[in-house]
């Protein structure tokens, strides 16, 4: 028993190093994609203290819009531009009709409003584009397809999908740009202020309307990127929305307010759950991936209740 | 007056990808009958879809809704919903037609007088796939020591085939490896396929649905699994499912029990009376693809059931319990197929009081990179193995659901 | 609403201390947060029955001192003796159980509850009926509720806040919130009551009212009071002894008059002598 | 309305004019029942009144923060520099030069003191150097803040937070400041200092002030004009000097009856009634 | 003045603490009670089966979650799984004790989910707010996994689903199983829900409820006033999970009749959460409003929309219903963030000052 838990998995790892590498790579890629979803959450949370439940559906919505437009005959790049436009409009609408009237309300109310938004977008998206899964227009967008295989040791094989490499690169660039933007600029500080206290932020002249429009737009762009990358792996369909839950442990691990946290959290979860599922999962019948991420996050939390990079929860009287 | 035929369908949610073509096919065939023949024997059909989203809870709701409205039969289109409504329908006396899905044991007509699962049960499907594998290996004895992987949607549907596969693995001596895919992880199967890569099964069998199928096909091509050793049950045979893998998915094969393509008079009629008349929701590019045709086949069973019921009842307006008689006495002959424009589209089929499924012949279609192609001939599942197991499963069902009502419905085709 | 309770009942102590005995004693207590030394090496005591004021400039460590006393902060160094017993790391609820109640500088009322419920919440420690009686809400549980409700009504009458009994406290103006908070602390019938700037944000009249309440509590219920306040008029008038902090250190301790003339205190805090 | 009558006569230009506003919370709770007041350009006006009189509500109505509390101005008008502002957003008002220091500090808990101050300069466009200069100025006013500049505001003491809130408002270089209980929680010498700062900004830079303050004594010493608010109505207004002389104000707000300062020790045990309500 | 408190003096604290201190409220409740009893005699089976019964059951689950989230301030996304624990326990209990009255078993099954709730509530001592949500999500997904992976739970059925057996009680009335009548099931559910709601009302207005609210509103202050976070939080988890468990058991036994693990998925958790928030955090009536809205509205829309525009496709109805529900959620939050319950009491407030616009 102890052997199969503590030793055997490592023996297996050592026996097939190429496979271990492949597992790590798959975990890495999954982690990057989780991180992308989490990033969208972080942006909005940072800027308003709102946990944006709709981020997952925004991913689907953005992807569907892109593919849907293309299906209607719009050239790929033009469709991309138009989709960005649509996400901009969505940001404006959300700011105007959801966030603005709910200024200064408790977090949970804002959370609820984004759930309402989710319903609306699901209905609207399916109404316009139908419910069929659509294939991502990977090639048309000039994204790499295909894969490369590397020989490792004798007979070992590591297969890397080009699209996965592209996803990792794009995600890292995105995280970098956003991290700089939000930490080093005036807007960045204003965002954190807004998240702390809406009313005080208003009172010092921070324009919530403008800020929220900006971050929702940024989150929309992140959603679009995520949609393209996930879509390339499977299909663009509403089933993707469910994967967005995986962003939760990622977020919590990284800390709700940290952009680098999203990527670190994503990688820990991505790699952790792959290793767990492949090497330990069989001990209990497999399928543990569905909860392992949450357990990993939970264990981290017991030691750091605010996540790895999150802001300390202030307790003072 | 009209005959109320509710169709449970799902054009929304994670399973819409498979649900939409099916719903279109079912809907369009029945509409065609209305348009072309003015219904069946002069009675128009009232076709109403109830959107379930493949969600059992909504399915129950749909059931309650149509039950009150005088439904002729229930057509749940989800194994989960079928399992839910079987006990209810048996009490409410509404026949359930679960065509090639649902509870395999429901084939035992004496236990489940109100449930029908023609032309084949899942166990027939599983046995057919193993039969084909055995054929390719040059005989059942060569399966000994082989590894067969089973990747399935971890829900009532995917698990339905496991008892049979386990049984076969025991008798035939192959090793069965199971790879469950949780419903909410359908689009994220990299772990399962990593495991498959490590275990290197000789054959893969898939029981997938909705977004699970295209993702699996893609993942299989990614790990460079030999696609011609990758089998799907009939429900993994959507055109979009295989197309996700594109050229790389060439060789992927699934079971089938009806024609592919549009070269049949019945399909031409649907096009003429329904699609071209703007009465269908189908995307013209996807007209007559594999799952669409399956919907058509499903509706043919409904229509033929109604006809039979009318014949037995001796009047065109029938009730749900007449409908049960119709289905139980269903006998679609070669000649009848020809009459309804389905010659070559389907094989003749027949149900009896004892056997509500029929264990009919199936064949294999293979993906050529663009479309499904028939590969090989129609062949029979291993009925000798399947039947006794079904009998036992039905007994188990009765035992665990006691008091289960005795069959009181008379058997007319005796 | 009922006006049956005319008389505020006296709380009788049973800790065996006579008025004037040392009730709480701090010896060389130090507390630091990272680099910030909130309290450095402070010793002082609070005697039973007195009103003890703690004053000092902003950030001197006054609030931290109260936090140490009721167990919310744990000092790195020093000994705290309460009723003759040295206390090791004590959890806040244990402090509460041993008879220490307090109010807060930033009003810390239970925002979602009415005034009545807020004050009832002060009775938590005194209520014991178990879960099953509570579910039924008959007999003992109901009697208990009513018995404590009577007590709370006394306090409400005493603080003259009858009219806001059922108002959610979040909607009250600041001054009334402070008063409700005092009521909540009183409901605990504490032996030692810690008040953190109870009169901030009040106008003169309200401060007079508040002073009256504090004096009454002290004299009628015999409650020992430690009080932080920036209004020197109030402090000098109502307190028995004053301790002065600056930068976490004690710079003065004595009667109001002594403190008033202490040059260190004048330099660091008062600015001009009052 | 005595309030408007007396000010209309004055020849000075008003930077702020509140005309007969009514405020309702939650659609049902009427809090301000026709409040009018004016602040002349370069004036310091004090708004006095008991708990719950509606001072905070008045200030929030002016700075447009009511909406976020589910309150609304249902009647009357508010003008800043001659333009109607009721329909504007709070940040627009700050941009125009009117900023509020909110009651109860409202610091950004997770930001450091310095970052808090910088958010005050959010609307400014006059460059880094100018902002830096002003920050030094704030630190000179409140040396304590300089010591704690890199602490998270949420962990600082009440007084430190109050200083931060005031400093933050100063950072926006406003034309007018609405101060809600500025002296709350500050040590006595600092209270005096705050008002010195008010006076200095007023003299040197012509900043106008409207302050709601409980410490009537100080407030009336520094203010030029005062209004007294009771249960949502202005009950008295006048030049600060006159108010200080008023018998009622003396008794109820300044605590100096006929016989000099009363001791808190000997306060009477009965509720007195304010004469002007009679 | 159609509705007023004035003129109704309370002469004792007992009267003051009554659940409905105002006469108009008592009359209103009486009418609702009467309606609840009479409905089955007029309504169709569909209305009872698909709307009323699940509405009541989900309202109970919402009350359960409301205790945790609305009263004790601990956000939970694991309601679905806790309901599942109740359902599976009840299923096991019925097969172990086939002769015990099913209602007893339903009530007992809540104890199991209470125990599990306490275990998953332990981290709440250290983890707060949205962060706590992840612990409950862990519970949700872990338990869901158990429902699939532990065949003992569903008696090794090959389908992995549980089927409700037929059980009789109260003489020979069929209570569960496919042959039970809609009316019987409705009345059983109504009885259980009303009884439990009253018990919960008693808890929340007493000491225990106040402790929960203290922890919710300001945990530090609560602790400084003598509330032990451990007991307060865990008791909230226990009571909350108990109610969810009972609701889960009823959901299967009196409504669905059979269930696969996916019946207790995260979707259900969210659905219940919507009910709580939309109805009003910390309000028991609110839970009923919320449940009626979230459960009833889509069904009514789906049934009603086709009647308006003839010939809308089923899925279009579905899409439009989804959109409307989403938009209405946002709309109601904007009108009144504190939920329908608050809207209700504001409405009463308006009536009180009527005919004046405000008082
Ligand atoms: N939890 C903490 N973490 C970090 N620093 C703290 C903490 N608590 C207090 N401090 C610091 O300790 C010092 C003393 O704070 P304290 O609140 O005790 O002051 P105070 O005397 O009450 O001041 P005031 O009169 O302004 O309320 C302050 O500089 C404060 O910033
Ligand atoms: N958000 C709110 N909802 C409902 N009523 C409110 C709200 N805020 C304040 N009130 C009510 O408005 C009245 C005026 O309150 P306000 O805060 O303006 O008084 P104030 O004069 O500033 O008092 P203080 O000196 O105590 O700060 C009070 O009776 C209060 O109960
Ligand atoms: Mg302090
Ligand atoms: Mg105020």
Automatic annotation (TrEMBL), chain A:
> Which subcellular locations apply to this protein?
Cell membrane
Full protein name? ABC transporter permease
Q: Which residues cross the membrane?
A: 20-43, 50-70, 76-97, 109-129, 159-182, 211-230, 250-271, 283-303
Pfam families per the record?
BPD_transp_2 (PF02653)
Q: Which GO terms describe its cellular component?
A: plasma membrane
The UniProt entry, under PANTHER family, shows: ABC TRANSPORTER PERMEASE PROTEIN (PTHR11795:SF451), BRANCHED-CHAIN AMINO ACID TRANSPORT SYSTEM PERMEASE PROTEIN LIVH (PTHR11795)
Species lineage, top-down? Answer: Bacteria, Pseudomonadati, Pseudomonadota, Alphaproteobacteria, Hyphomicrobiales
Q: Which InterPro entries match?
A: ABC_transp_permease (IPR001851), BCAA_transport_permease (IPR052157)
Q: Tell me what topology the record assigns in the membrane.
A: Multi-pass membrane protein
The organism of origin for this protein: Hoeflea olei
What does the record list as GO biological process? Answer: amino acid transport
Q: Which family does it belong to?
A: Belongs to the binding-protein-dependent transport system permease family. LivHM subfamily.
UniProtKB/TrEMBL annotation, chain C:
Pfam name, any one: BCA_ABC_TP_C
Q: Which UniProt keywords apply?
A: ATP-binding, Nucleotide-binding, Transport
One GO molecular function term?
ATP hydrolysis activity
GO cellular component term, pick one: plasma membrane
InterPro entries registered for this protein in UniProt: AAA+_ATPase, ABC_AA/LPS_Transport, ABC_transporter-like_ATP-bd, BCA_ABC_TP_C, P-loop_NTPase
User: Record's superkingdom?
Assistant: Bacteria
Domain ABC transporter residues, every copy? 24-272
Q: List, alphabetically, the PANTHER family matched.
A: ABC TRANSPORTER ATP-BINDING PROTEIN, CONSERVED COMPONENT OF ABC TRANSPORTER FOR NATURAL AMINO ACIDS-RELATED
Official protein name in the record: ABC transporter ATP-binding protein
Q: In which organism is this protein found?
A: Hoeflea olei
The organism's lineage?
Bacteria, Pseudomonadati, Pseudomonadota, Alphaproteobacteria, Hyphomicrobiales
TrEMBL record, chain D:
Q: Which UniProt keywords apply?
A: Amino-acid transport, ATP-binding, Nucleotide-binding, Transport
Q: Name one GO biological process term.
A: L-amino acid transport
Tree of life domain: Bacteria
Q: Which residues form the ABC transporter domain?
A: 16-256
- Keyword Transport recorded: yes
Any one Gene Ontology MF annotation carried by this entry is: ATP hydrolysis activity
Transport keyword on record:
yes
Q: Which family does it belong to?
A: Belongs to the ABC transporter superfamily.
What is the name listed in the Swiss-Prot or TrEMBL entry for this protein? ABC transporter ATP-binding protein
TrEMBL record, chain E:
**Membrane-related topology note:** Multi-pass membrane protein
- Record key words, sorted: Cell membrane, Membrane, Transmembrane, Transmembrane helix
Q: What is the protein name for this chain? A: ABC transporter permease
| Annotated TM spans | 27-44, 50-68, 100-122, 129-150, 186-204, 234-256, 268-295, 307-335
**GO MF assignments:** branched-chain amino acid transmembrane transporter activity
Which species is this UniProt entry from? Answer: Hoeflea olei
InterPro entries from the entry?
A: ABC_transp_permease, LivM-like
Q: Which GO terms describe its cellular component?
A: plasma membrane
């Amino acid at each position: 028993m102890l052997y199969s838990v503590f030793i055997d998995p490592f023996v297996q790892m050592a026996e097939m190093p190429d496979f271990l590498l492949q597992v790590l790579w798959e975990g890495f890629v999954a982690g990057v994609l989780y991180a992308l979803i989490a990033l969208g959450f972080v942006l909005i949370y940072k800027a308003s203290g709102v946990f944006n439940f709709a981020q997952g559906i925004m991913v689907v919505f953005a992807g569907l819009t892109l593919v849907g437009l293309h299906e209607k005959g719009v050239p790929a790049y033009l469709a991309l531009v138009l989709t960005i436009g649509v996400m901009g409009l969505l940001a404006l609408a959300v700011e105007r009709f959801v966030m603005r009237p709910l200024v200064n309300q408790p977090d949970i109310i804002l959370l609820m409003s984004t759930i309402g938004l989710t319903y609306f977008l699901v209905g609207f998206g399916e109404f316009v584009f139908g419910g069929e899964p659509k294939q991502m227009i990977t090639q048309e967008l000039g994204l790499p397809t295909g894969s490369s295989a590397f020989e490792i040791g004798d007979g070992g094989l590591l297969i890397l999908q080009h699209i996965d490499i592209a996803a990792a690169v794009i995600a890292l660039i995105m995280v970098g740009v956003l991290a700089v933007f939000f930490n080093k600029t005036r807007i960045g500080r204003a965002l954190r202020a807004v998240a702390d206290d809406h009313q005080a932020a208003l009172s010092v002249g921070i324009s919530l309307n403008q800020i929220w429009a900006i971050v929702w737009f940024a989150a929309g762009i992140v959603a679009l990127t995520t949609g393209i990358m996930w879509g390339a792996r499977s299909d663009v369909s509403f089933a993707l929305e469910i994967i967005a839950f995986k962003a939760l442990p990622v977020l919590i691990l990284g800390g709700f307010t940290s952009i680098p946290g999203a990527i670190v959290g994503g990688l820990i979860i991505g790699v952790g759950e792959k290793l767990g599922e492949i090497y330990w999962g069989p001990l209990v019948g497999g399928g543990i991936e569905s909860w392992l991420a949450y357990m990993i996050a939970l264990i981290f939390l017991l030691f750091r209740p605010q996540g790895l990079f999150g802001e300390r929860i202030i307790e003072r009287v | 007056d009209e005959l109320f035929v509710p169709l449970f369908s799902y054009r929304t949610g994670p399973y819409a990808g498979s649900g939409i073509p099916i719903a279109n096919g079912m809907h369009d065939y029945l509409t065609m009958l209305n348009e072309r023949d003015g219904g069946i024997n002069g009675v128009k059909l009232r076709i109403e879809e109830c959107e379930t989203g493949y969600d059992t809870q909504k399915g129950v709701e749909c059931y309650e809704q149509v039950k009150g409205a005088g439904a002729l039969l229930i057509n749940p289109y989800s194994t989960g919903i079928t399992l839910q409504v079987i006990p209810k329908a048996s009490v409410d006396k509404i026949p359930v037609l679960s065509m090639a899905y649902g509870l395999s044991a429901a084939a035992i007509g004496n236990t489940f007088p109100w449930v029908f699962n023609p032309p084949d049960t899942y166990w027939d499907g599983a046995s057919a796939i193993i039969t084909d594998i055995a054929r390719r290996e040059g005989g059942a004895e060569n399966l000994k020591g082989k590894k067969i992987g089973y990747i399935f949607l971890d829900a009532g549907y995917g698990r339905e085939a496991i008892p049979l596969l386990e049984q076969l693995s025991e008798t035939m001596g192959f090793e069965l490896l199971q790879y469950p895919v949780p419903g909410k992880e359908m689009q994220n199967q990299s772990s399962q396929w990593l495991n498959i890569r490590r275990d290197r099964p000789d054959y893969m069998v898939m029981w997938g649905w909705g977004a699970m199928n295209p993702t699996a096909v893609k993942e299989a091509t990614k790990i460079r699994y030999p696609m011609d050793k990758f089998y799907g049950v009939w429900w993994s045979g959507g055109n979009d499912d295989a197309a996700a893998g594109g050229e790389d998915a060439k060789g992927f094969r699934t079971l089938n029990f009806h024609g592919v393509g549009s070269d049949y008079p019945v399909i031409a009629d649907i096009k003429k009376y329904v699609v071209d008349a703007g009465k269908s929701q189908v995307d013209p590019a996807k007209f007559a693809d594999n799952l669409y045709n399956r919907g058509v086949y499903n509706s043919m069973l409904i229509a033929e059931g109604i006809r039979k019921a009318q014949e037995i009842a001796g009047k065109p307006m029938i009730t749900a319990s007449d409908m049960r008689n119709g289905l139980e006495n269903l006998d679609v002959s070669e000649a009848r197929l020809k009459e309804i424009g389905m010659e070559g589209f389907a094989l003749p089929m027949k149900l009896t009081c004892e056997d509500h499924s029929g264990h009919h012949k199936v064949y294999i279609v293979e993906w050529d990179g663009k479309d499904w192609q028939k590969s090989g001939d129609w062949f029979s599942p291993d009925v000798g193995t399947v039947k006794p197991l079904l009998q036992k499963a039905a007994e188990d069902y009765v035992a665990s659901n006691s008091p289960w009502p005795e069959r009181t419905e008379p058997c007319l085709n005796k | 609403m009922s006006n049956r309770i005319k008389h505020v009942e006296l709380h009788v102590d049973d800790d065996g201390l006579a008025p004037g005995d040392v009730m709480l004693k701090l010896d060389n207590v130090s507390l630091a947060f990272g680099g910030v030394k909130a309290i450095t090496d402070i010793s002082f005591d609070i005697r039973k029955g007195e009103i003890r004021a703690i004053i000092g400039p902003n950030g001197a460590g006054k609030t931290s001192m109260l936090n140490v006393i009721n167990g919310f902060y744990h000092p790195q160094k020093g000994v705290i003796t309460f009723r003759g017993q040295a206390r090791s790391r004590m959890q806040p609820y244990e402090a509460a159980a041993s008879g220490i109640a307090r109010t807060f500088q930033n009003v810390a009322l239970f925002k979602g509850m009415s005034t009545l419920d807020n004050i009832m919440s002060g009775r938590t420690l005194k209520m014991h009926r178990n879960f099953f009686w509570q579910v039924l809400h008959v007999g003992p549980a109901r009697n208990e509720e009513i018995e404590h409700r009577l007590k709370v009504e006394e306090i409400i009458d005493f603080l003259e806040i009858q009219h806001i009994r059922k108002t959610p406290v979040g909607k009250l103006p600041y001054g009334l919130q402070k008063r409700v908070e005092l009521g909540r602390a009183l409901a605990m019938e504490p032996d030692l009551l810690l008040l953190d700037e109870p009169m901030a944000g009040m106008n003169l009249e309200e401060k007079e009212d508040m002073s009256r309440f504090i004096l009454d509590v002290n004299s009628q219920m015999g409650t020992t009071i430690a009080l932080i306040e920036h209004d020197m008029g109030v402090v000098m008038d109502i307190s028995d002894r004053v301790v002065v902090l600056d930068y976490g250190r004690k710079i003065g301790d004595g009667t109001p008059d002594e403190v008033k003339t202490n040059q260190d205190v004048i330099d660091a805090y008062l600015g001009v002598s009052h | 309305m005595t309030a408007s009558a007396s000010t209309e006569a004055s020849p000075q230009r008003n930077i702020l004019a509140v005309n007969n506003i009514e405020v309702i919370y939650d659609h049902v709770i009427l809090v301000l029942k026709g409040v009018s007041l004016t602040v002349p350009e370069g004036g310091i006006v004090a708004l006095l009144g008991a708990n719950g009189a509606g001072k905070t509500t008045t200030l929030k109505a002016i700075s447009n923060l009511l909406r976020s509390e589910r309150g609304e101005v249902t009647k009357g008008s508010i003008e800043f520099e001659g333009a109607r502002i009721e329909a504007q957003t709070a940040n627009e008002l700050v941009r125009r030069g009117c900023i509020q220091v909110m009651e109860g500090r409202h610091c950004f808990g997770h930001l450091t003191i310095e970052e808090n101050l910088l958010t005050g300069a959010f609307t400014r466009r006059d460059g880094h150097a100018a902002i830096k200069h002003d920050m030094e100025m704030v630190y000179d006013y409140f040396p304590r803040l300089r010591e704690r500049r890199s602490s998270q505001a949420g962990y600082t003491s009440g007084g430190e937070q109050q200083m931060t809130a005031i400093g933050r408002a100063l950072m926006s270089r406003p034309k007018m400041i609405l101060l809600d209980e500025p002296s709350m929680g500050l040590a006595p010498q600092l209270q005096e200092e705050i008002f010195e700062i008010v006076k200095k900004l007023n003299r040197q830079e012509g900043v106008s002030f409207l302050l709601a303050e409980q410490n009537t004594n100080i407030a009336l010493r520094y203010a030029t004009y005062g209004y007294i608010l009771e249960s949502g109505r202005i009950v008295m207004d006048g030049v600060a000097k006159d108010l200080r002389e008023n018998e009622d104000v003396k008794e109820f707000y300044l605590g100096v009856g006929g016989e000099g300062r009363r001791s808190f020790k000997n306060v009477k045990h009965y509720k007195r009634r304010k004469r002007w309500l009679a | 003045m159609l509705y007023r408190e004035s003129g109704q003096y309370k002469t004792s604290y007992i009267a003051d603490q009554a659940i409905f201190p105002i006469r108009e409220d008592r009359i209103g409740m009486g009418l609702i009670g009467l309606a609840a009893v009479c409905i089955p005699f007029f309504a169709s089976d569909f209305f009872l089966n698909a709307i009323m019964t699940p509405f009541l059951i989900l309202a109970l689950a919402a009350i359960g979650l409301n205790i945790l989230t609305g009263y004790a301030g601990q956000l939970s996304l694991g309601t679905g799984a806790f309901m599942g624990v109740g359902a599976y326990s009840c299923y096991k209990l019925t097969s172990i004790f086939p002769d015990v009255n099913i209602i007893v078993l339903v009530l007992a099954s809540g104890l199991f989910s209470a125990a599990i709730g306490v275990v998953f509530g332990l981290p709440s001592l250290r983890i707060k707010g949205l962060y706590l949500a992840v612990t409950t999500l862990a519970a949700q997904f872990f338990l869901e996994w158990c429902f699939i992976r532990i065949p003992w739970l569903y008696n090794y059925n090959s389908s992995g689903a549980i089927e409700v057996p037929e059980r009789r009680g109260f003489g020979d009335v069929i209570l569960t199983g496919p042959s039970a009548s809609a009316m019987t099931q409705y009345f059983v559910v109504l009885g259980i829900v009303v009884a439990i709601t009253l018990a919960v009302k008693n808890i929340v207005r007493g000491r225990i409820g106040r402790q929960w609210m203290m922890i919710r509103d300001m945990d530090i202050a609560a602790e400084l006033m003598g509330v032990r976070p451990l007991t307060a939080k865990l008791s909230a988890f226990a009571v909350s999970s108990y109610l969810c468990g009972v609701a889960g058991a009823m959901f299967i036994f009196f409504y669905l009749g059979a269930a696969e693990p996916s019946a207790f998925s995260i979707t259900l958790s969210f659905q219940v959460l919507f009910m709580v928030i939309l109805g009003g955090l910390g309000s028991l009536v609110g839970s009923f409003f919320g449940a009626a809205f979230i459960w009833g509205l889509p069904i009514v829309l789906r049934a009603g929309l086709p009647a308006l525009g003839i010939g809308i496709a089923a899925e279009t109805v579905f899409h439009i219903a989804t959109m409307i529900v989403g938009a209405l959620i946002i709309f109601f939050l904007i009108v009144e963030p504190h939920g329908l319950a608050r809207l209700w009491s504001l409405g009463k407030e308006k009536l009180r000052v009527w005919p004046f616009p405000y008082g």
